[in-house]
Amino acid sequence: MVGLGVALAVAAGGLPAGGAAAESSAERGDYLVNTVMACGNCHTPVGPNGPMMERALSGGLRFETPDFTVHAPNITQDAATGIGGWSDAEIKRAIVEGVRPDGALLAPVMPTTFYQVLTGDDLDAIVAYLRTVPAVEATTPPRSFSALPEAHPFPGAEAPIPEAERAADVVRNGFYLATIAHCMECHVAWTPTGPDPVNGLGAGGREFPGPWGVSVASNITSHPEHGLGGWSDEEIARAITTGVSRDGSRLKPPMGFGYYAGMTPEDVGAIVAWLRTLPPR
Ligand code: HEC
Ligand code: HEC
Predict the structure, then answer these.
(1) CATH topology of domain 24-137+146-154
(2) Which residue's CA lies nearest to atom 42 of ligand 2?
(3) pLDDT of 120-172, one tens digit each?
(4) Which residues touch 6 (CB under 8 Å, ≥6 apart)?
(5) To test ligand 2's pocket by mutation, which of 216, 218, 228, 260 has the most ligand atoms within 8 angstroms of CB?
(6) CATH fold group of domain 161-281
(7) Which of 65, 108, 181, 203 could bond to 189 as cystine, CB 3.0-4.6 Å?
(8) Residue ranges of the Cytochrome c domain (predicted)?
């Protein structure tokens, strides 16, 4: 009896704060896909009333550049029009290497250059969750391109950051989360040759035209006037998770606050801690 009591106490001590039971791989994947990584921000169709959740992940946004026109495809489990017929290895290769089973390269709109930082466990979790996504039959128009720009890994995202390293350092964890959330795909300075993560990390300025007009990615470096330097942690967390800026104004798409709303306070806090370390621009 005594032995059992000790075992229970140890097990209870090992539970995460809040007392929630350990999450399964598919649950972890659900969290990653639908909050931090906001896959639906591109892959879910948008109707007049916002994202069409009954057709979640069945194909969404169109991306047009001088070099290519692509649509975020159907990644539901439909075998004919989605990825239901792909093996786990094929899905992982598309996510982290940007290569389809037929060998075709994906346009770098799909943020594979950020996803190489994913740990094996998180990649397994994403695939486990995708397997649970209801099949929706939907085709997106064929892709067309003259050239695909060369894709380079985001600096620091060349290899997975182990779980233990993140558990030991909140800023490191924040970098991991902000990277898989690809915040810096939008909030980086853009030059005629593409993004400049070395000199323009967090500087913003990239324009996003859409039904909302044109939104401009904000400067989210620690600059005291142009960036977030003068904001409190709570104000930054509120902007990320509710889309309300410091002055109370509402942020426009494609900032993914509707997805980030579901992030745990710990994960939002880690991202804020990392943003604080960005040199002012
Ligand atoms: C910024 C927009 C964007 C985000 C975010 C995004 N994707 Fe994509 N994804 C795309 C686009 C666009 C393509 C197609 C590119 C092409 O056709 O060359 C694509 C292709 C894919 C493919 C290959 C499918 C096929 O039929 O070729 C898979 C699998 C995929 N994405 C999974 C995901 C997952 C899982 C996530 C989240 C972890 C995600 N994507 C996040 C835009 C995005
Ligand atoms: C797909 C592009 C995109 C992604 C990804 C993105 N953002 Fe944004 N973000 C924007 C745009 C555009 C705005 C400005 C919206 C506006 O002004 O209405 C913005 C605004 C913000 C603001 C408000 C700043 C201010 O001055 O009001 C913060 C903070 C922010 N983003 C942080 C983040 C973080 C952290 C991430 C990753 C977890 C992220 N963003 C991911 C496009 C993006």
Answers:
(1) Cytochrome Bc1 Complex; Chain D, domain 2 (1.10.760)
(2) 255
(3) 999 999 999 999 999 999 999 999 988 887 888 999 999 999 999 999 999 99
(4) none
(5) 218
(6) Cytochrome Bc1 Complex; Chain D, domain 2 (1.10.760)
(7) 203
(8) 24-134, 168-279
